[in-house]
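Collaboration report, partner site 2.

Our partner group contributed sequences for two proteins of shared interest, and the home lab folded both. The records are reproduced in the order in which they were received, starting with the first partner submission.
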Amino acid sequence: MKNTIFEYFKNLFYPKLYANAKKPQTTPLNTNIDRNVGYLQGKFNGSADFTIRRLNINNIRGAILTMEGMCNKDTLTLSVINPLLEKEYPEIQGPELFNYIERNVLTASELTKIEDFETLMQLLMSGFAILLIDTCSTAMSIGVQGFSFRSVSEPESETSERGSREGFVEPLRINMSLLRRRLKNPDLRFETMTVGSVSKTDICMCYLTDAVSQSILKKLRQKLEKIDMDTVLAGGYLVSYLEDENDHSLFSGVGITERPDTAAGKINEGRIAILIDGTPSALIIPYLFVENFQTMGDYSYKPYYATFIRWLKYICFFIAALTPGFYTAIALFNPELFPEQVLNKVAVSIGSTPFGLITEILLVLFMYEIMREAGLRLPKALGHAVSIVGALVIGDTAVSAGFIGAPTLMIVALTAIASYVIPNLYPQLCILRILFILAGGFFGIWGIVLLSCVTIVNMCGKSILGVPYTMPLAPFKLFGMRDVAIRADWKVLSQRRNIIRDRKEQ
């Protein structure tokens, strides 16, 4: 009975991520054009953007199907309609006419034969024009895509002082071209597939055949094929499916980048980049913990300065995660560790505020997160107003009124600034701060030590597609430390690529 109840709630809150997706049944095209058009009209049910252009080709009825706003009308007219109507045809019909049009009439560069309605509708809604001819059970998709999209611009979340100013955009094909420009190598492969039973979202795996681990590639391909979702509108939809099935770690083994040069660098190291149509970013898998501290700008500076910046990020990580918890633990359990002058200030601050120290520091963190979310969601014109109001309310008024102590405010401000140095780990740091505050507030320094051990064990036990998350620290790889403990000179880094392999291949 207990096991039954446990399994019920487990399946309720943690359903199986991987389900054997049913292969959709295909419906073949008919030789009668009226039946084909009627079937599609019934499927789209009078949708306003579904257009039909009927025409007469060599005294045989034909039709061009398009979706309004998804194709370029000028290209459609010049490359498809005009050649079809102006061409003089021999006395042929049916499949012979169809093949003749493909080889001698149409001038579009992208032509594909279609034999079922499911493929036809997917290509139609992707911006292709569809040519139907009576007495022929095959249709032809013509590449005349022309939907509007945002031009390539500088990524907002990953700015670089000396690197490229190009960032990924929403169209999949443009993102593929951004990678091809940087890796002009015939070993670069683009493998496309469709996910989402409703959205039919195109995704693309990008990898180098001479660098990628075939074992990792096989595992990833299996995970993607087993995804059973209705819609996929962003890369975050796929992250939980790419992680290990029983992985409940706070950290993620799937990286996200908006920069084509960063994605190209990871691909060169044997990683796999996943591009999602409609998403201006790429997923990087497998993604290691130490890579959260690496940026493309690090490789544009001298090694000594890049190493300094790298260690500055490590220090900021510990400051952002541990400082509030240590402050709480020392103030409540070991105040003698404070210098005398600092102890007097802390004692006066704690005694003059109406809240306990744990409540006070959590309240300040909560108010800070409110202002941060408001600043992110509001228009840029109002974002400055939020900063001013927050500084006045929390930084001045609350301290002057005696609701918040100045040391607490300083500690929270320090941790907030330190966490911005490592933006990739901000969600994890936000949760870790709260946990360390509670551990230090209830159990003192020993609680922080215990929670630190649990966090380290959790990180070391995590793997992604068979690759340990904490490589090259655990298991230790001296070769990999050239870009972790230090940032070695390019004369050293370029000698051999740091290829990623799973445990069985190492």
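Second partner submission, folded after the first:
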Amino acid sequence: MLLAERQAHRAKVRDQALLIEKLEHQIARLRHERFGQSSERRALLDQLELQLFELKEDQAQAEAAMPAEEPPSQAVQAFTRRKPARRPLPEHLPRERVVHPAPSSCPCCGGTLHKLGEDVTEMLELVPRQWKVIQHVREKFSCRSCEKIAQPPTPSHPIARGRAGPGLLAHVLFGKYGLHLPLTRQSATYAREGVPLDVSTLADWVGASAATLMPLVEAIRAHVFAAERIHADETTVPVLGVGKTRTGRLWTYVRDDRPFAGADPPAAAYFYSPDRGGVHPEEHLASYAGLMQADAYAGFNRLYEAGRKPGPIVEAVCWAHARRKFFDLARLNKAPIAIEAVARTDALFDIEREINGKPPAERRRVRQERSRPRVEALETWLREQYARLSPNSQVAKAIAYSLNRWDGLARFLDDGRLCMTNNAAERALRGIAVGRHNWTFAGSDNGGRRAAAIYTLIETAKLNDVDPQAWLADILARLHDHPAKRIAELMPWNWKRRLPQRAAA
């Protein structure tokens, strides 16, 4: 019976290993496909990852139930699949040695033992974070000659009348906007750790911190709108109203020159509005003139007018949105024309993957040689198919969407700075979409504007591979005493370069 159970365990682990390998391959392929439609791929990716994590939990449970003498490799149908090597534990973590007592004498003959060495097994452990109160002591001294009193000046505080240190403020800010943890949950967590902090107190800290950080927010926004090309998009934000919620909007404008090897650092600027009116992007982009990658939102149309001051914004339409129209039909209805349109579009994305990160001139050259013939052939083919279809059919509507915006879609062929998609802006809004499930709604229009400001800081830090919480903590500690004309030194990309210097000092 024991043998049968062992064989059943082995079969279960074997089957799970094969399925895990298959899922890992699918997930890696989806992650590699950076270009093209994002929402349907994101949903599939989330589903596959959830399934993968569940399978790994099942596999770990099954392996734990097997006898300890199981070999490190398992036979799996025609090949041997070795367990992946464990990732070493982080070197920067402190080590605590726990020496287990050895026998004082030989257990066989009672003779004297001599140490040959030692075996060390490491175990990762979590210790509750440490809270502390920092007392800033300013000693007073009096002069016996003139009786004057001397005392150091009061140190600057991150926020006025606040008793929170910069690290705590950064933790609250990043928890609320970076990890999407409502202040009620944070307050409950702190209380369990023995530090009761009312939600109202945390809210005061968030508001005061946002006000303190606004000069940095404005500097990032100015950097974004100094770009030659930006990405634009928006998403809904439920806002608490009287008796019901209403729908506000969070807008994002992203500067990211890395696809065409630009030297300027990336950044994302967010704005809030109580509705989706076109007047809002007109206000946000009042000083901007250049290239803008966006969806086909009609509220942007006035920005593209030739007589606009300080100049027209040049529209570059997102191919991912056009592809999505065909993809949905190909997936749901198996429409042959839609399937062919997706295949032709994906061939263009394949070329884009090859030239991502190349200089603009190189990108334009490749597009002229390889992409332009495909784009021209696609336009001709779409017009031929449209002529054969009823204008009311779903496929015809998908074709019309692309043909009506063809100039904007084809613009990337002549400008190496442009991308085929607006994915940079969509990625910048992904965290907000996740956050809506946790914090449910913004408390007011002011809360929406405050969220836009903090998202500007957090997302810009992430785009520059900077830890947002560490950066915010350091900035909050220094901002009050930092000269306003040197605000650029505190930008995430400059802060990152100066970090080794500060550590050495």
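Feedback sent to the partner group on the second submission included the following. The first helix runs from residue 2 to 32. Residues 249 and 276 are 6 Å apart (CA to CA).
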